[in-house]
Amino acid sequence: KNQVEQSPQSLIILEGKNCTLQCNYTVSPFSNLRWYKQDTGRGPVSLTIMTFSENTKSNGRYTATLDADTKQSSLHITASQLSDSASYICVVSGGYNKLIFGAGTRLAVHP
Amino acid sequence: EAQVTQNPRYLITVTGKKLTVTCSQNMNHEYMSWYRQDPGLGLRQIYYSMNVEVTDKGDVPEGYKVSRKEKRNFPLILESPSPNQTSLYFCASRRLAGQLASYEQYFGPGTRLTVT
Fold this sequence. Notes:
Helix content of chain B: under 10%
Oligomer: heterodimer
Shape of chain A: globular
Largest interface: A-B, 23 and 25 residues
Structural class of chain A: mainly beta
Largest sheet of chain B: 7 strands, mixed
Distance between the termini of chain A: 41 Å
Shape of chain B: globular
Low-confidence stretches of chain B: none
Mean pLDDT of chain A: 93
Radius of gyration of chain A: 13 Å
Largest sheet of chain A: 6 strands, mixed
Number of helices of chain A: 0
Mean pLDDT of chain B: 93
Strand content of chain A: over 45%
Number of strands of chain B: 11
Strand content of chain B: over 45%
Number of helices of chain B: 0
Distance between the termini of chain B: 36 Å
């Protein structure tokens, strides 16, 4: 069964600290993996998209990694800001135009 | 500005009263999709469309209908809403991807529906 699992479910960190969010997937065939940021009450916004041949991709303070062998991805946030408070969703493309969504990690950044 | 719009943003209705949530995109995307988001669950696909007059069921299609008469519009129709359809709904659009392509998917702002 195609699944995307994210951990932790929720996370609280202090402003300025770094954090790493995890994503494990059992999706086949694999096309690409995406990380989205979703602010409360808004639609998800894309952070990164990685194909199986890409190991790392950065978008400002966000860095995503992908290990296609172990089917794991992580999203690292550097020097967190209050505006980073949001849900982060891992999405795996499981073939022709099919996206499988993780349940998300809810991040709260406190001053 | 490239965007996906949805209307209404908030809707409270009663069981059995037909409703339509509109979705429109201005990016000439072939692919459009509807999702629902419930607490603790990932976004689940309701219906999708790969082009005008081409629609197909997603993972949770029961109780919903869609139509794609124009490329830019993809309305979601609830013929007889029930309380278990209370949820946050998102419309999304993107270019139609080949097997190894990874085009960006754009989401609308969401419609919060409450059925009492």
